[in-house]
Protein backbone atom coordinates (compact mmCIF):
# COMPACT_ATOMS: atom_id res chain seq x y z
CA UNK A 1 0.00 0.00 0.00
CA UNK A 2 1.36 3.40 -1.01
CA UNK A 3 0.13 6.81 0.04
CA UNK A 4 0.06 9.53 -2.63
CA UNK A 5 -0.65 13.17 -1.79
CA UNK A 6 -1.64 15.81 -4.31
CA UNK A 7 -4.12 18.66 -4.74
CA UNK A 8 -7.41 18.06 -6.50
CA UNK A 9 -9.60 21.01 -7.40
CA UNK A 10 -7.76 23.17 -4.89
CA UNK A 11 -8.04 20.73 -1.98
CA UNK A 12 -5.17 18.62 -0.64
CA UNK A 13 -5.88 14.89 -0.80
CA UNK A 14 -4.01 11.80 0.19
CA UNK A 15 -4.97 8.38 -1.12
CA UNK A 16 -3.80 4.91 -0.24
CA UNK A 17 -3.32 2.82 -3.36
CA UNK A 18 -2.11 -0.63 -4.20
CA UNK A 19 0.16 -0.96 -7.19
CA UNK A 20 0.33 1.88 -9.67
CA UNK A 21 -3.24 2.73 -10.69
CA UNK A 22 -3.91 5.38 -13.30
CA UNK A 23 -4.96 8.83 -12.14
CA UNK A 24 -8.34 8.36 -13.85
CA UNK A 25 -9.29 5.52 -11.54
CA UNK A 26 -8.09 7.32 -8.43
CA UNK A 27 -10.19 10.35 -9.40
CA UNK A 28 -13.28 8.26 -10.12
CA UNK A 29 -13.04 5.40 -7.61
CA UNK A 30 -11.18 6.86 -4.64
CA UNK A 31 -12.27 10.50 -4.84
CA UNK A 32 -15.73 9.83 -6.34
CA UNK A 33 -15.39 12.61 -8.93
CA UNK A 34 -17.18 11.03 -11.86
CA UNK A 35 -17.13 13.93 -14.33
CA UNK A 36 -13.87 12.62 -15.78
CA UNK A 37 -14.87 9.78 -18.09
CA UNK A 38 -13.22 6.54 -19.17
CA UNK A 39 -13.21 6.39 -22.94
CA UNK A 40 -10.61 4.35 -24.78
CA UNK A 41 -8.06 3.74 -22.02
CA UNK A 42 -5.25 4.43 -24.49
CA UNK A 43 -5.07 8.24 -24.32
CA UNK A 44 -6.53 8.60 -27.81
CA UNK A 45 -10.07 9.91 -27.28
CA UNK A 46 -9.70 12.67 -24.68
CA UNK A 47 -12.74 11.77 -22.56
CA UNK A 48 -10.52 11.52 -19.46
CA UNK A 49 -8.77 14.89 -19.92
CA UNK A 50 -7.86 16.76 -16.72
CA UNK A 51 -5.34 19.47 -16.00
CA UNK A 52 -2.13 18.68 -14.16
CA UNK A 53 -0.41 21.87 -13.06
CA UNK A 54 -2.47 23.70 -15.70
CA UNK A 55 -1.63 21.41 -18.61
CA UNK A 56 -4.20 19.12 -20.22
CA UNK A 57 -3.39 15.44 -19.66
CA UNK A 58 -5.08 12.15 -20.44
CA UNK A 59 -5.65 10.81 -16.94
CA UNK A 60 -5.96 7.23 -18.21
CA UNK A 61 -2.26 7.40 -19.13
CA UNK A 62 -0.94 9.04 -15.93
CA UNK A 63 0.32 6.74 -13.19
CA UNK A 64 -0.81 8.03 -9.81
CA UNK A 65 2.80 8.51 -8.70
CA UNK A 66 3.18 11.09 -11.49
CA UNK A 67 0.48 13.20 -9.82
CA UNK A 68 2.23 13.26 -6.43
CA UNK A 69 2.65 16.83 -5.21
CA UNK A 70 0.89 18.29 -8.26
CA UNK A 71 -2.30 20.30 -8.80
CA UNK A 72 -4.97 18.29 -10.59
CA UNK A 73 -8.11 19.99 -11.88
CA UNK A 74 -11.10 17.96 -13.03
CA UNK A 75 -14.27 19.25 -14.70
CA UNK A 76 -15.78 19.56 -11.20
CA UNK A 77 -12.99 21.95 -10.24
CA UNK A 78 -13.03 24.08 -13.37
CA UNK A 79 -15.76 26.20 -11.82
CA UNK A 80 -17.42 25.64 -8.46
CA UNK A 81 -20.85 26.56 -9.84
CA UNK A 82 -20.44 25.11 -13.34
CA UNK A 83 -20.44 28.66 -14.66
CA UNK A 84 -17.07 28.72 -16.38
CA UNK A 85 -17.49 30.64 -19.66
CA UNK A 86 -16.91 27.43 -21.63
CA UNK A 87 -19.54 25.57 -19.64
CA UNK A 88 -22.03 28.37 -20.26
CA UNK A 89 -21.12 28.43 -23.97
CA UNK A 90 -21.58 24.65 -24.19
CA UNK A 91 -25.15 25.07 -22.98
CA UNK A 92 -25.88 28.16 -25.08
CA UNK A 93 -24.57 26.50 -28.26
CA UNK A 94 -26.32 23.20 -27.45
CA UNK A 95 -23.07 21.29 -27.86
CA UNK A 96 -23.83 18.04 -26.02
CA UNK A 97 -25.83 15.27 -27.52
CA UNK A 98 -24.92 12.16 -25.53
CA UNK A 99 -22.54 14.33 -23.48
CA UNK A 100 -20.04 11.58 -22.72
CA UNK A 101 -17.00 13.34 -24.18
CA UNK A 102 -17.94 16.83 -23.07
CA UNK A 103 -15.96 17.12 -19.84
CA UNK A 104 -12.79 16.16 -21.70
CA UNK A 105 -13.64 18.54 -24.54
CA UNK A 106 -14.18 21.42 -22.11
CA UNK A 107 -10.97 20.70 -20.21
CA UNK A 108 -8.99 20.60 -23.47
CA UNK A 109 -10.60 23.87 -24.61
CA UNK A 110 -9.91 25.51 -21.23
CA UNK A 111 -6.21 24.77 -21.63
CA UNK A 112 -6.27 26.34 -25.10
CA UNK A 113 -7.96 29.53 -23.92
CA UNK A 114 -5.69 29.81 -20.88
CA UNK A 115 -2.67 29.84 -23.20
CA UNK A 116 -4.24 31.59 -26.20
CA UNK A 117 -7.28 33.75 -25.30
CA UNK A 118 -7.91 34.67 -28.96
CA UNK A 119 -7.27 31.51 -30.98
CA UNK A 120 -8.05 31.36 -34.68
CA UNK A 121 -10.43 28.70 -35.96
CA UNK A 122 -7.38 26.77 -37.16
CA UNK A 123 -5.79 27.03 -33.68
CA UNK A 124 -8.99 25.63 -32.16
CA UNK A 125 -9.25 22.75 -34.62
CA UNK A 126 -5.58 21.86 -34.15
CA UNK A 127 -5.74 22.00 -30.33
CA UNK A 128 -8.98 20.00 -30.11
CA UNK A 129 -7.88 17.41 -32.70
CA UNK A 130 -7.21 14.61 -30.19
CA UNK A 131 -10.62 14.86 -28.52
CA UNK A 132 -13.18 12.61 -30.17
CA UNK A 133 -16.95 13.06 -30.26
CA UNK A 134 -18.91 10.10 -31.56
CA UNK A 135 -21.99 12.29 -31.98
CA UNK A 136 -20.07 14.59 -34.33
CA UNK A 137 -20.82 17.90 -32.62
CA UNK A 138 -17.52 19.38 -33.79
CA UNK A 139 -19.08 22.47 -35.44
CA UNK A 140 -20.88 23.27 -32.17
CA UNK A 141 -17.71 22.67 -30.14
CA UNK A 142 -15.73 25.04 -32.34
CA UNK A 143 -18.51 27.65 -32.22
CA UNK A 144 -18.70 27.44 -28.43
CA UNK A 145 -14.94 27.95 -28.08
CA UNK A 146 -15.03 30.84 -30.58
CA UNK A 147 -17.86 32.48 -28.62
CA UNK A 148 -15.75 32.47 -25.45
CA UNK A 149 -12.64 33.65 -27.28
Task: Give your account of this protein's structure.
Keywords: 2Fe-2S, Iron, Iron-sulfur, Metal-binding, Oxidoreductase. This is Isoquinoline 1-oxidoreductase alpha subunit. GO terms for molecular function: 2 iron, 2 sulfur cluster binding; metal ion binding; oxidoreductase activity. InterPro entries: 2Fe-2S-bd, 2Fe-2S-bd_dom_sf, 2Fe-2S_ferredoxin-like_sf, 2Fe-2S_ferredoxin-type, 2Fe2S_fd_BS, Beta-grasp_dom_sf, Diverse_Oxidoreductases. By secondary structure, the protein is α+β, with helices and mostly antiparallel strands. The chain folds into two domains: 77 residues, Beta-grasp domain (Ubiquitin-like (UB roll)); 64 residues, DNA polymerase, domain 1, CATH 1.10.150. The protein is built from seven helices and five strands. Strands 2-1-5-3-4 form a five-stranded mixed β-sheet, with helices on both faces. A hairpin with a 2-residue loop joins strand 1 and strand 2. Helix 4 crosses helix 7. The longest helix is centred in the C-terminal third of the chain and has 14 residues.
Amino acid sequence: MTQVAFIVNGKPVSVDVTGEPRLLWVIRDHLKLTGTKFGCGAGLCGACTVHIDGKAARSCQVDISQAAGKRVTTIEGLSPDSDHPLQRAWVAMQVPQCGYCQSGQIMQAAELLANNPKPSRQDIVRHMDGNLCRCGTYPHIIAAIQSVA
